[in-house]
Amino acid sequence: MWASDDEAQTLEIVLGDDIAGVEVHLLYGVLEACDVITRSVLIKNTGSGNITIEKAHAACLDMVYGDYDVIRFYGKHAMERNLERTHLGHGTLSFGSRRGTSSHQYNPAVILAQRDTTENAGDCYGMLFVYSGNFSCEAEKDQINQTRLLMGLSDELFSYPLAAGETFTVPEVIMSYSADGFSQLSHQYHTCISEHVCRSRFAHEVRPVLINSWEAAYFDFTGDTIVDLAKEAASLGIDMVVMDDGWFGKRDDDNSSLGDWFVNEKKLGGTLSELIDRVHAQGVKFGIWIEPEMVNEDSNLYREHPDWAIQIPGKLPVRSRNQLLLDFSRKEVRDNIFDQICAVFDQGKIDYVKWDMNRSMADVYAGNLAYDYVLGVYDFMERLVTRYPDILLEGCSGGGGRFDAGMLYYSPQIWCSDNTDAINRTRIQYGTSFFYPVSSMGAHVSAVPNHQTGRVTSLKTRGITAMAGTFGYELNPALLSDEEKEEIREQIKTFKKYEMLINEGTYWRLTSPFEDEVAAWMSVSRAKDRALVSVVRLYAEANAAACYVKLKGLESDAVYIEENTGRQYTGAALMNAGIPLPFAVKEYEAYQFSFIRLDEAKKLYDEIKKVCGNLKLSEADTADSSSDKRIVISIYGGSGSGKTTIAAALQQYFFLRIIQPAMC
Ligand code: GLA
Known about the structure:
Bound molecules: alpha-D-galactopyranose
Structural class: alpha+beta
Distance between the termini: 50 Å
Number of helices: 16
């Protein structure tokens, strides 16, 4: 995390072991405004011989009392970050990654919660590792019911040599606590990630709505295909076209060419520079896909430098997606790829880069490899974002296999999952939201039947789900009907209208898609004067009871109008009673509700109060129907000036502040 001097302080505790010749520096960073304490560790070899680090955690919390649940986010490729809540009994519960990346399998994040903690109430403690490689999290309950939570580097495949005088850094864990349940904890993490982890200049900017060539064409495209996508994009209101995998070497499938970062001009029908100009000529930005950490055995790079791939000499390498991992712990390997990539990026104005990473690490030939590899990746990214500060970087790893705070330091958005199915996505995005802000989650509308699940959902449902992230499309518009194209135009207008509210507002989970019949979430502006509520029905049932969704984060005593229906509600009514959903006609329907606080009506009400003195009804007034206290308010204005709206809102204010308290 980064912060200015007046935002953070660091406490450094030095522990020394003169006999072993080791010093351990515990660094506690305090960001008071964020309600966050970070901890990282420096291990120094102060002796005269070599030492080996076998295990290194970054943070440790000991709870002397309490009965806890552990919440972790497990998954797999195309179904990342499912929430699992487990009671911590005696013994140790541990999880982590030994895949070289933070992984699809477990996210480097954990919550320790009192057993009765909910979204809205109760104690909970979070730990988030700012690291993109192997990690370990351990929760242990001991014989006298104390609980210890540890987060740090994995000790599997790890054994780090440290020569005399050298220092080893254990990356940082961000710790936070909430006494008011998970929502509050999430808000603390969202703010600290977007304010103090994401360093990109795009972190708080409007992000381009993009269309990606992957699910539109996979490997089967030419330069004209990309230009056609750009033309369609321009006519639909999409800001950017991204040319995904398949533009380099001789790559027409996933068997070859990773490592050969030169443009396949034959396939594109011209130079990259020409293609970029053709795309820009449509008034659309241009983005490109890369996977710099990889090599195929069928590549010039591998033929020249087979030893650059991570392998154990004399053994057959473990292949995954027909590719091997380049040894990014070695500077000469990084330098070669960096030079190749720069030579491509210098060919034209590239607005966006999707950095992919499509396999796990295997053949770990040494105990320092996994750690030094991640530092190598960070070094490469640092050089890339420094050289190209105007390129928006999106992270990716077979979808969301490296969705972590380490990556978010460089790329303010990460492709959340290769699963673009709207219904599965409600779960993936829900789990992701516990630690990571909406602005970090890449989410796209794709074609139906969905390519991963075969499910058919409406364009509206797909749009509403993708709007809970950095929005885009992953389909071929040429295959859409005119009606669908028109709907997309409207969808983009809607997204752009609410984009800053979604990305910069406060995000609330309203239901759990793992338990409830609807998935619902909302964003509330910091001033609490705007709110956007999204709901997706996960299943429909005949003759079902009405379903109400209770909102959160509004001002109880303000009046809000729902933009589309013109209905007015007090914040209290929306939060305590909720909004009724239309009766289900079909499975997977989705709804969006936009609320605006009626500030004009509130101002008017306050004026009336000033003029009329203290407006208060006594119990006698409410009991006595013949009581004749009257105030007549006339509102003037032409047709369409909002008289009716204001009158209805005033009614709500009178009811809420005068009549209801007297009746109670
Ligand atoms: C990964 C990514 C996809 C796509 C393909 C290309 O699976 O997650 O979005 O870029 O690679 O090979």
